[in-house]
Amino acid sequence: MATSLKCLLRSGKEAAAAPAVGDANRDLAAIQVTVRDALNQALDEELERDERVFLLGEEVAQYDGAYKMGFTGIAVGAAMAGLRPICEFMTFNFSMQAIDQVINSAAKTYYMSAGQQPVPIVFRGPNGASAGVAAQHSQCFAAWYAHCPGLKVVSPWNAEDARGLLKTAIRDDNPVVFLENELMYGVPFEMSEESLSKDFTIPIGKAKIERQGAHITLVSHSRMVGHCLDAAAVLAKEGIDCEVINLRTIRPLDVECIEGSVMKTNHLVTVEGGWPQFGVGAEICARVMEGSAFNYLDAPVTRVTGVDIPMPYAKILEDNSVPQIKDIIFSVKKTLGV
Amino acid sequence: MKTMLAIISNALCRITGKNAGAQTVSEGARVVVSRSLSDFTPQATFDIKKCDLHSLEAGPPEKAELTREQGLQYYHTMQMVRRMELKADQLYKQKIIRGFCHLYDGQEACAAGIEAAINPSDHLITAYRAHGYTYTRGVSVKEILAELTGRKGGVAKGKGGSMHMYAPHFYGGNGIVGAQVPLGAGIALACQYQGNNQICVTLYGDGAANQGQLFETFNMAALWKLPCVFICENNKYGMGTSVERASASTDYYKRGDFIPGLRVDGMDVLCVREATKFAADHCRAGKGPIIMELQTYRYHGHSMSDPGVSYRTREEIQEVRSKSDPISMLKERMLGANMASVEEFKEIDIEIRKEVEESAQFATSDPEPPLEELCNHIFSNSPPLEVRGTNPWSKLKSVS
C-alpha cells in the first residue's frame, strides 16, 4: 500500500518528452521548450534526485476533486515530518481557502519553534489573470504572500526561469510560493544547453536584466516581462532605450538590481498584473525611496497595474482590466515627459 | 526519577533490614519508606470501562494490567502536569505569564495514558491546550515554564509562547483551531511513505470537531489508509459553549462516519492507555485511521481569561473533582490493591512540588532572549539575511 501510494504521489502529471539534446537539428536552432515542459522536466528530475520529494494536490496523479484546506495541511504536516512535498493548487485562487496552512502552519513555524522545525515545502500553481475565467479565478496573489516573513515567493517568466527556480525551490529547506502563469504554459522559449542540465538552478532573490537600456528602467514579473520587452521593442524605434528587469523573485526583492538600474537610467516604471493598492509596485516605490537610488530619480516612479476592480468576464472588459503593451508605452513616455 | 525511588527504597530496605513500622530516611536521597517493599503487590489487574464502538467488531480489553512501577510512573506524570499547570495559573495571575494560557488540569489522564501506549518514535500533534503533551513528549517543566514566561531558557527560546512549543516527534502546540488535524494526517502520510511503522496521534477538541478541514482530512486519511489516530478530547465545552449547544451530534467518535471510532473514559489513565494501544495496533496493522473520543474535563476555564463559571456551575466542577479526578482515581486504585503506600505518594508529591518550584524559580529569573535573537530563525539552512526594522535605517540581521 505504501509503495503504491508513493508511486501515485511521485508520478506527477503526464510529462511531454524532453526535446532530444543529441538531436541532429541541434546545430540549426537552440532548443525550444515551453514553460509547461520546462516545469515538468524539472519536476521529474527533482523527483528522481531526492526520494523525499513528492507531489500532492488537486488533479495530480489520479485523484480528482479539490480538498483544499485538507490537502494543504497534509502537505505541510508531511514536510514537518521529513518529506519534501510539492503542493499543487489548481490555481492560487483556491489557496485562499488554505492560506491559513500556508501562513500559520508553514511560514511561521521555523520562527515559532526557534529553529527546531523547518518546513521544506513548495506551493505551486497558476497565479493571476487567465482568459475568461472571471473574477474568482483571476486574482494575483504575489502581494498577499510576499507580505509574509518566513515565505519565499518566486514568479518565473520564461522556461528557463521556470526550470531553474523550481529546482531551487524544491531544494530549499523553506516554504516557497511558486507563482506560475497559465497563459505562459504553452509559450516556447529558447533554452541553452547549460539551462537544460540536471543541476541548473537559479538563485532565489536575484533579478535578471533581460534587456539593457539607458533611458528608463522597467521592472516586472511573470507574464508582464514579455509585455515590457514588446513595449521596449516598439519604443526603441522611437529612440527610447528601455532597460527591462525580470524580478524572478518577489520576496526577497532584489532591490540592489533595481537601484543599480535606476542610478543609471534615472526613471522607473513598475509593471504588474495585480491590483495597485499595497502591491508589488507599491513596495518597489517604497524601497527605492528609502534607498540610495532616490536621489537619482528625475521623475516619480510610475506603477502600471491591473485595474482596481474584480476581473470581469466579457472579453473586451477583461482585455481592458490588465496592462496592455500600449499602457506600458504610454506610461514610459509620461514618465520621461515626452 | 520515578523508578529510582523504587530502586533506592528497595536497596535501603535490604541493607537496613528494616520492615513494617520503621522509618528510613536516607540523607540526600529524599526517600521515606515505612514498609518493606515485599509487602506491596507488584502487579494487579483492574476492570476498566467498556468503550462504545463505532464500526468496530471488537474494542479494547475491559481489563488493564498495571505494574507498581507503571502506576507510580503514571501518577508521577499526571501529578507533575497538574502542579505545573497550577503553577502556571499562579504565575499568570502574578502577570509573569501573559497572553494566551490554556490549562490542562483535569485532563492529565489523556496525555499520560496516550504516552504510555505509544513509542517515543511515534508522532503527536495537538492544539493549544498543549502543556501536558509538551511534558509527556519529553520537554522538562523548567523549559515549559520558561517558555511561558518568555525567557531564553524556554523550549522555543521565548519566541513561541504557550501555544508554540515543539520537541522531536512533537509538533506543538497549534494556535488555529483545527489546523493541526490536516497537519497530523500529513505526518502520518510521511510515516507511511517512509515505511517506518510509526503512527501519528492527532488531537483536537470538541470545539474543532465541526470544522470542515477535519472532514476533508478524514476523507483523505481513510482513502489513503494513513496511520493516524485522531483523538477528540471532549471536555464538554468549546470555550463557553457546551457540546449540546454546539453540535448536532455529540457522538464525536462517530463523526468520522466511514472511519471506525471508540468512545473512551478519558478520566481513567488505564482506559486511555488500553484504548490508545488498541488504536495504535489498528493503524500499524495497515487498517487505516481510527478515531478516539476521550471524555474528559478541564477544571480551569477555556483560558486564563475565562473564569469558567459563567457557562457551568461550580457544583459541576466540584463534582468532577471529587468523583472523577484522574490522579485521585489512580492513587486510590493502587492503595486499594496495596501497590504503594500513602507515604510514597506523599514523597512523590513533595519531590514534584520541589521540581516545579525550582522550575518556576528558573522561569522567573532567567533573562529574556537577547535582542540580537529578534530576527533569527526566519529561514532554515540559509545564509544570513538582512531584515528591515521599524524604520528604514534599522537594518537587522537574521541567521538560520
TrEMBL record, chain A:
Function description: The pyruvate dehydrogenase complex catalyzes the overall conversion of pyruvate to acetyl-CoA and CO(2), and thereby links the glycolytic pathway to the tricarboxylic cycle.
UniProt protein name: Pyruvate dehydrogenase E1 component subunit beta
Catalysed transformations (reactions): N(6)-[(R)-lipoyl]-L-lysyl-[protein] + pyruvate + H(+) = N(6)-[(R)-S(8)-acetyldihydrolipoyl]-L-lysyl-[protein] + CO2
Entries under PANTHER family matching the protein: DEHYDROGENASE RELATED (PTHR11624), PYRUVATE DEHYDROGENASE E1 COMPONENT SUBUNIT BETA, MITOCHONDRIAL (PTHR11624:SF96)
Pfam families in the record: Transket_pyr, Transketolase_C
Summary of subunit composition and partner proteins: Heterotetramer of two PDHA1 and two PDHB subunits. The heterotetramer interacts with DLAT, and is part of the multimeric pyruvate dehydrogenase complex that contains multiple copies of pyruvate dehydrogenase (E1), dihydrolipoamide acetyltransferase (DLAT, E2) and lipoamide dehydrogenase (DLD, E3). These subunits are bound to an inner core composed of about 48 DLAT and 12 PDHX molecules. Interacts with DLAT.
Domain of life: Eukaryota
Keyword Cell cycle attached: no
A GO term, aspect molecular function: pyruvate dehydrogenase (acetyl-transferring) activity
Manganese keyword on record: no
Domain Transketolase-like pyrimidine-binding: 33-187
GO biological process, one term: glucose metabolic process
EC number: 1.2.4.1
Alphabetical keyword list: Carbohydrate metabolism, Glucose metabolism, Oxidoreductase, Pyruvate, Thiamine pyrophosphate
Cofactor dependency: thiamine diphosphate
From TrEMBL, chain B:
Molecular function GO labels: metal ion binding; pyruvate dehydrogenase (acetyl-transferring) activity
Swiss-Prot/TrEMBL catalytic activity: N(6)-[(R)-lipoyl]-L-lysyl-[protein] + pyruvate + H(+) = N(6)-[(R)-S(8)-acetyldihydrolipoyl]-L-lysyl-[protein] + CO2
InterPro entries hit by this protein: DH_E1 (IPR001017), PDH_E1_Alpha_Subunit (IPR050642), Pyrv_DH_E1_asu_subgrp-y (IPR017597), THDP-binding (IPR029061)
Keyword Phosphoprotein on entry: yes
Subcellular location: Mitochondrion matrix
Domain Dehydrogenase E1 component: from-to ranges: 77-371
Region Disordered, residue ranges: 380-400
EC number, as in UniProt: 1.2.4.1
Pfam families: E1_dh (PF00676)
Domain of life, per lineage: Eukaryota
An annotated GO cellular component: mitochondrial matrix
Listed GO biological process terms: glucose metabolic process; pyruvate decarboxylation to acetyl-CoA
Cofactor: Mg(2+); thiamine diphosphate
Biased composition (Polar residues): 391-400
This protein's UniProt keywords: Carbohydrate metabolism, Glucose metabolism, Magnesium, Metal-binding, Mitochondrion, Oxidoreductase, Phosphoprotein, Pyruvate, Thiamine pyrophosphate, Transit peptide
Principal cellular location given in the protein's record: mitochondrion
Function: The pyruvate dehydrogenase complex catalyzes the overall conversion of pyruvate to acetyl-CoA and CO(2), and thereby links the glycolytic pathway to the tricarboxylic cycle.
Name this protein carries in UniProt: Pyruvate dehydrogenase E1 component subunit alpha
